[in-house]
Structures are given as structure tokens and as C-alpha cells.
Design goal:
- By secondary structure, the protein is mainly β.
- It has a single domain, classed as TolB, C-terminal domain (Neuraminidase, 6 Propeller).
- The chain has 1 helix and 27 strands.
- It has a 5-stranded antiparallel sheet, with no helix packed on it. A 4-stranded antiparallel sheet has the order 3-4-5-6, with no helix packed on it. A 4-stranded antiparallel sheet has the order 7-8-11-12, with no helix packed on it.
- A hairpin with a 5-residue loop joins strand 19 and strand 20.
- It is globular, with a radius of gyration of 18 Å.
- It starts with a strand and ends with a strand.
């Protein structure tokens, strides 16, 4: 099946990824991201187990390794000279199939870690020592470094999307520097779910997926507000990936949005927003009100995009938020 947006056309390739521990993968409620490495491989996460999974663009398993997190929610890559590392935002709890898909543990214990491409912990960020966390939880959803690849100074930006709806800045050594909450710009963040450093402009910009407000807020790399994108065409912007002169935005409510170089809407891929109104979405109702993997998955239409990346050939890879996950490749054909 082929789908398109603007002048871009893709072949939809279902069940693209070869996962380790396939039996357990079918039970886990996937809730993670994806990234494209300097080695030309796709880096993502297992739906159930605390495993980083590395795949070829054809979907073949290269290797997997364990990392000390509860839920590898946000996943981005960083470069330091010739070395690449993985930033993982661990929101601190996961829906457990052995507990009727309730979140475990409660309360969550969120953290941010940087690991090597073989899983060794290189750096862990502390919860910011600010009043917002004296009695409330830190539950980060995204972390990204202003690193060599971006021409930056090594600062690390963290979105606490599931905790206090704040975005924090740390220096390269992991020391907390400051926070922004959106009031500097279009208004208070409501689930700042994901972050992206946009290197298309002469001066790089920090994009914040202000998900529950249905917009993207843009800041300079000192945290100064610049503008807002897409309040008139986004639904629930969730995750970013660069795409040449464009930016890809995965929207949880069932589509991938392509945004052009002047913040204009290029088009939607796999738009299926009505599915988010179905009972027990992104899954479906099961026995005793326990959700089960949905039977509503349709080729060519998304269900719940949560992670996205692209490769050097213009192909797009999407991971989705549901029991068992869904890993889809969109192969660029025109």
C-alpha cells in the first residue's frame, strides 16, 4: 500500500522490525521512541523488557542490550567527538500485564540516563532541586543534548512531561541550570512531551511538543521564546524527527504530520484521528475491563504514533503506543 503527503509518496511496510524475546513483546504496552544512528541503524526499545534494540533499515536485529530503566520513554542520540551515546528519559513506571496493565510501580521513580551504544551508564541526571519537586514527582518524557552534531555546547534539555510540565536545562556535566514552563511564550506547558533541536536555521532552535495544548513552542538555546508552530493544524504533537528541509511530527492521535521550512503544513501521513475516540484506545476493551491489543489496526492508517525517525534515504520509521507495539516503515518511493 502507498500513502502520500504533498509531493512525498511512501510504501507502507507493516511488521517491519525483528524483535528479540518475541513472545514477551506481544504482552508489553509499548511506550517508546526511535532514533537513527551514525552507523546507519535504527535504535529503539522493546515493548516489554528493558532492552535497547538495534536494527538494520531492513528490520534485521543487529543486537539488543539491557539498560537500568523502568520505561525507556524518550530516546535520542548524542555525539561526542567520534562517539555516540543514547539519552533515555525514564518516566519511572510502566503498564504491567501481570497487574491488569496498571502502572507499576507507584509512585513512579523517574530519571534521565545516558548510556553507551552497548549499554554502559555514562551519566545520570538528578531531579532538579527546585520547589516544584518538594512534594511532587519528576516523570521525564524526553531528553536531548545540544551536542557536537548540533554544533552546541553540550547542554542537556529535559522535558518533564508526565510530572510538573516543565522543561529543564543542564550543563554537559549534568548540573542543573534553569527551567522554563511556557509562560515565557504562548502559555503554560501542558504535557511538554518531546524536545527537538532544529538545526535548519542559522541559529539552532529548541522545539517543545506542548502536546495537550495542541501546539509546538519554539525557543532559542538560552530558553528565550521565539514563536509558536501549528496551533491551527496540530492535534496532539508528540515527537519529532528531522527530514531534510522539513520536520516530521508524530501525533499520538493517529497521524504523522510533515511541517515545511516556513512552519507550514505540508500534509498528513496515515491520518486516522477518529480512532482515538474508540473505547479503550489505543487498545480495545477486553474481559473484566482489562485492555487487550486492538483489532482496529489498518494498513496505511496509524493508531498511536509515539516514536519516529528517518534514515539517509528518506525512509521513515514509526513506533506506536499500544499493547504489543507496532513498528512500521514508510519507504520513500517518490
Amino acid at each position: 500500500m502507498q500513502i502520500s503527503a504533498g509531493d512525498l509518496e511512501f510504501e507502507w511496510i507493516s511488521d517491519w522490525a525483528e524483535l528479540p524475546s518475541a513472545d514477551s513483546a506481544a504482552r508489553g504496552w509499548a511506550h517508546h521512541g526511535a532514533a537513527f544512528s551514525t552507523e546507519g541503524q535504527i535504535v529503539t526499545f522493546h515493548p516489554t523488557e528493558s532492552l535497547v534494540v538495534i536494527l538494520t533499515p531492513a528490520g534485521d536485529l543487529v543486537r539488543s542490550f539491557g539498560v537500568p530503566v523502568t520505561e525507556a520513554h524518550g530516546l535520542t542520540l548524542a555525539t561526542h567527538g567520534y562517539m555516540q551515546s543514547i539519552w533515555i528519559a525514564d518516566n519511572g513506571r510502566k503498564r504491567d500485564p501481570d497487574h491488569d496493565y496498571d502502572y507499576m510501580p507507584e509512585p513512579p521513580v523517574g530519571k534521565v540516563v545516558r548510556v553507551s551504544m552497548t549499554g554502559e551508564v555514562e551519566l545520570e541526571l538528578d531531579t532538579p532541586a527546585i520547589p516544584a519537586y518538594e512534594n511532587d514527582l519528576f516523570s521525564p518524557t524526553s531528553a536531548i543534548a545540544f551536542d557536537d552534531r548540533c554544533g552546541g555546547n553540550g547542554d542537556i534539555w529535559v522535558a518533564d512531561g508526565y510530572g510538573q510540565s516543565l522543561v529543564h536545562r543542564y550543563n554537559a556535566a549534568g548540573d542543573f541550570l534553569s527551567s522554563i514552563d511556557g509562560t515565557e511564550g504562548a502559555g503554560r506547558f501542558d504535557c511538554p512531551h518531546s524536545l527537538w533541536i532544529d538545526t535548519r536555521p542559522d541559529a539552532p532552535e529548541l522545539l517543545v511538543a506542548d502536546r495537550a495544548n495542541g501546539r509546538v513552542q519554539v525557543f532559542d538555546m538560552e530558553g528565550g521564546y521565539i514563536r509558536t508552530i501549528g496551533a491551527d493544524y496540530f492535534d496532539r504533537p508528540t515527537v519529532f524527527a528531522d527530514y531534510g528541509e522539513n520536520v516530521l511530527v508524530g501525533e499520538l492521535n493517529a497521524r504523522v504530520t510533515i511541517v515545511g521550512p516556513n512552519d507550514e503544513l505540508v500534509g498528513y501521513l496515515g491520518d486516522n484521528t477518529p480512532v482515538s475516540e474508540e473505547p479503550a484506545w489505543p487498545n480495545e476493551p477486553g474481559d473484566n475491563d482489562i485492555p487487550r491489543r486492538t483489532s482496529r489496526l489498518v494498513e496505511g492508517l496509524f493508531n498511536s504514533p509515539h516514536g519516529i525517525t528517518s534514515d539517509d534515504d528518506g525512509n521513515i520509521y514509526v513506533t506506536e503506543w499500544l499493547i504489543g507495539g507496532r513498528y512500521t516503515k514508510l519507504r520513500l518511493v517518490g
